Automatic annotation (TrEMBL):
<dbReference type="InterPro" id="IPR003679">
    <property type="entry name" value="Amioglycoside_AcTrfase"/>
</dbReference>
<keyword id="KW-0012">Acyltransferase</keyword>
<comment type="similarity">
    <text>Belongs to the antibiotic N-acetyltransferase family.</text>
</comment>
<dbReference type="InterPro" id="IPR028345">
    <property type="entry name" value="Antibiotic_NAT-like"/>
</dbReference>
<dbReference type="Pfam" id="PF02522">
    <property type="entry name" value="Antibiotic_NAT"/>
</dbReference>
<protein>
    <recommendedName>
        <fullName>Aminoglycoside N(3)-acetyltransferase</fullName>
        <ecNumber>2.3.1.-</ecNumber>
    </recommendedName>
</protein>
<keyword id="KW-0046">Antibiotic resistance</keyword>
<keyword id="KW-0808">Transferase</keyword>
């Protein structure tokens, strides 16, 4: 895989300053600065109020990405927040969170254990994964956990997908059902995993997008009887460097909304509208990636 100058410089900086993980380093710095300026406490009820103002209600399909490092002014427990979300959407609603395993587990001999492997998607997602009745999709790269009436529809075919974001994936089906995708404490310009549905769908329309899917890889997992099973997925080793502000400037209130409680950034993406907007932009050559760049291609 060709390495960009950005990555090469990053490796040098990490070595000089002893930084193992840039993402974790940024989160720690952001938290330390935030604790200087933000002191107002908030509760699960405060978060729920904002989420309801953004559209969450009984029967909603809700997906949550969260960074608990940003919850330092939160007065409550993780379980309390999950319980109140489930109470709000009720038995007719479905709650989803990312559940891809910790990348540090990955190796050529790695066998995914959907029941026992911890998620690498953060503490809130890991607590949710252990809830009674929660199911997990079988997909090493981009698994999800879900509970609610849409769980089977979202999760059951993930290992059958040609790639992990195609039309059989929970990420696309979330958008198909117009799910609300919330980011709690995530970086301001972060969108969500569903953004990868763009390249998955457009790979058949243009060579720029096709380069994201060039290599077939075999993944192994344990089934419910602890037998080793396999599935194939199309991926690529191409380097990706996202620049979400390129997309954000095109999004409107029909695509997303933003609010804030104390230090906590809360965003919601109205997934169906947002995905359609990003697909239309992609067909015009507007990509959220600056590596690989779409500028040398004709659209």
């Amino acid at each position: 895989m060709k390495t960009s100058l950005y990555t090469k410089v990053g490796k040098v900086v990490k070595k000089i300053f002893g930084i193992e993980d840039f993402s974790l380093f940024r989160k720690n710095v952001h938290k330390r600065l935030g604790m200087i300026f933000y002191h107002k406490k908030y509760t699960a009820d405060d978060i729920i109020t904002v989420m309801k103002e953004m559209g969450m209600k009984r029967g909603s399909l809700v997906c949550i990405h969260a960074s608990m490092k940003e919850f330092y002014n939160y007065s409550g427990t993780t379980e309390e927040l999950i319980d109140k979300i489930l109470e709000t959407i009720g038995g007719s609603g479905t709650l989803v969170m990312p559940a891809f395993p910790d990348v540090r587990l990955f190796s050529d001999t790695y066998i995914f254990d959907p029941i026992n492997d911890k998620t690498g998607a953060g503490y809130l997602a890991e607590v949710f994964r252990k809830y009674k009745g929660v199911q997990r999709s079988i997909n090493v790269q981009s698994s999800v956990c879900a509970i609610g009436p849409l769980t089977d529809y979202l999760c059951n075919d993930h290992h059958k997908s040609r790639d992990c974001w195609d039309t059989s994936s929970p990420w696309y089906r979330l958008c198909e059902k117009d799910g609300l995708i919330f980011n709690l404490g995530m970086p301001r310009n972060y969108i969500s995993t569903f953004e990868h549905c763009v390249e998955s769908i457009l790979q058949y329309e243009h060579p720029y997008w096709a380069q994201f899917f060039t290599k077939e890889k075999v993944y192994k997992y344990y089934d419910e009887d602890k037998n080793v099973q396999m599935y194939k997925s199309i991926t690529s080793e191409i380097e990706r460097r996202p620049h979400e502000p390129t997309i954000f400037k095109w999004l409107t209130k029909n695509d997303w909304a933003h609010s804030k409680i104390s230090n906590l950034e809360i965003k919601v993406f109205y997934s169906k509208s947002c995905l359609n907007k990003m697909l239309n932009l992609g067909r015009l050559g507007v990509s959220l990636y600056w590596v690989p760049s779409s500028k040398k291609y004709i659209f």
